[in-house]
């Protein structure tokens, strides 16, 4: 069974314009799926329909085999990382990452400690757990936002161009960390990017969108190393 299954998904806006036009795509359990395509092709809209931030005009969205078309975002058990993220300035790095766990009263303090330290270690934040966001670099802040997303046990991680505001060197480092983290956790991931290097190094498969249509689904090698 696919972790995420899209069946003939359409998103039509008021004027009849189809931002997403009959997209069917299965994402396997544990798979790292990249969504690419020119600006305006429907990547964000598709991601937002998976998360539940955007209504689906027609078609079915299944997560773990359950139809979620009418489910609220909080009931889909997904974690999304945005390009622009907000940290709580008055909380330490530790508490920022722990935040989503503290909302669930059933998770014990010991478990919170373990999970936060584990996430921080994967993101090289071990040394900074007691700091406040104001005392961190931009890259460290982005890592904290990512830590907050990966600390929960979820059906999937969804990333909307999470590295696009970082400089090239930092992007390279973060790419490696995201890759390591995803393989370690084995969590199904859908990742929107403009960046071919990200698509090649991170993706198990790459889905190419164009004007709302799914044009091709291929491995990075098939897609970028064709003669
Ligand atoms: P991408 O993420 O690939 O850049 P989007 O999913 O943001 O593309 O947008 C896909 C298309 O849908 C674009 O042409 C965009 O202008 C249009 N669009 C997005 N949101 C709306 C909206 N609320 N109303 C009308 N058109 C929209
Ligand atoms: P991105 O390029 O990062 O995908 P956009 O700048 O296209 O984002 O869109 C930002 C916001 O504006 C989104 O909430 C989107 O739904 C909305 N939007 C985009 N295009 C249109 C449009 N043609 N009409 C109305 N709203 C739109």
TrEMBL record:
GO biological process, one term: carbohydrate transport
Single GO MF descriptor: ATP hydrolysis activity
GO cellular component: ATP-binding cassette (ABC) transporter complex, substrate-binding subunit-containing
Domain ABC transporter: 4-227
UniProt keyword annotation of Cell membrane present: yes
Keywords per UniProt: ATP-binding, Cell membrane, Membrane, Nucleotide-binding, Translocase, Transport
Signal peptide: none
UniProt protein name: Carbohydrate ABC transporter ATP-binding protein (CUT1 family)
Organism of this sequence: Actinoplanes lutulentus
Shown part of the complete sequence: 1 to 227 of 410
